[in-house]
Amino acid sequence: MHEQQGASVRELMAENAALRRQLASLIDQAESNHAIMMRHQAFDLDIVGAASFQELVATIFRQLPIVSSLDIVTLSLVDAGADIYTVMHKLDVDFEALPNLLFHEHAEELGFDLEPGRPPRPRLLPYHPVSHGMAFPQPPAGLASVALVPLIRNRRVIGSLNLGSRDPGRFTPLLGTDFVEHMGSIIAICLENVISNEMLKYIGLTDALTGVYNRRYMDRRLAEEIARARRQSYRIACMYIDVDHFKQVNDSHGHQAGDDVLREVAARIKAELRMSDALGRFGGEEFVVLLIDADLDSAGIVAQRIRASVADQPFLLPEGKGLPVTVSIGVAALDDFERSHTVEEVAQELVAQADGALYEAKQNGRNQVVAA
Ligand SMILES: Nc1nc2c(ncn2[C@@H]2O[C@H](COP(=O)(O)OP(=O)(O)OP(=O)(O)O)[C@@H](O)[C@H]2O)c(=O)[nH]1
């Protein structure tokens, strides 16, 4: 009788201990889930709060692998005509710092089932180097399973979030997709937002006719560059460029031909500049160039190259005739930073000096460069 009681007490105690272990493991699991959820919430807040394209994409690449325990995250964007890439490049996005950001001309390249009227679903599957080469051009060693999550806005696929793991069981076709779909939808909204904001910023800073910067941008950039040049002691130079007798182009060949000439002049100026230089249209047929780390002599050499590249090759009119075009250029450089003046005053003075030199070039007969 005692023995029987003793046995059932031991059984009860064992059962009790097993239940406690189970409970402890459930509590651990719940705590770990809670921690994961908190990390995801913090991640969501960070990406929603990203103020620029660069910040958003860098945050995704930096945080998502940690938050979601992934071995690689890449992002493919649909960018027909490379509009997004071009604008981001002009806004100084550092693409070298974002090697996992990929651009595609068409949504079809992303590998989703694009049937009309049915939004594509995430694809969770074993990694295959050939079929997934586009999404993972630089896969980590041992990549075993991947999730390709379509980024959708207004029923349009704008890209794909590509997640990769060395764990073959991490992404399999039988797993639920709610979680990655949720993540994809937040990332899609954030991306669409920052891209529209950056596009607006870009439109506000560029000249619609020629695509070069506008006066507002140039004024700001000049002040920034002068402040930086003061701190780091390098020289900056400025060119004021004006198309000669431009009124005659409009009067003889029409406003449309005039517009074409302005576009071509902008393109020829640009072709002679370095990436770090900035070209802006100041209005009408006037352009201003800001040259970084250039003294008066080297700016004069660049100006002569620009003058020659416009004068040496006639512009092509729509009817096939050649139109000779020339420009006059005034050049000025800043080597004394006049620290008692504000950067804005120094900027104005620099542009005024270049403008004065341009006036001289016009007086001397045009198609020439004058240094202040
Ligand atoms: N097609 C076109 N013409 C413009 C634009 N903006 C200004 N213009 C024209 O540019 C011409 C500028 O003429 P002017 O300032 O008299 O100078 P110019 O004929 O170039 O003569 P110089 O500068 O003295 O060599 C005017 O006829 C303006 O109407 C534009 O966006 N497109």
Automatic annotation (TrEMBL):
What Enzyme Commission number(s) does the record list for this chain? 2.7.7.65
Task: Note the superkingdom of the native organism.
Answer: Bacteria
SUPFAM superfamilies, per the entry: GAF domain-like, Nucleotide cyclase
Keywords tagged on the record? Nucleotidyltransferase, Transferase
**Which InterPro entries does the entry mention?**
Diguanylate_Cyclase, GAF-like_dom_sf, GGDEF_dom, Nucleotide_cyclase, Rev_trsase/Diguanyl_cyclase
Residue stretches making up the GGDEF domain: 234-372
Q: Which GO terms describe its molecular function?
A: diguanylate cyclase activity
- Report the top EC class in one word: transferase
Q: Which transformation does this protein catalyse, written as a reaction?
A: 2 GTP = 3',3'-c-di-GMP + 2 diphosphate
- Entry's PANTHER family? DIGUANYLATE CYCLASE DGCM-RELATED, REGULATORY COMPONENTS OF SENSORY TRANSDUCTION SYSTEM
Q: What is this protein called?
A: diguanylate cyclase
Q: Which organism is it from?
A: Massilia aerilata
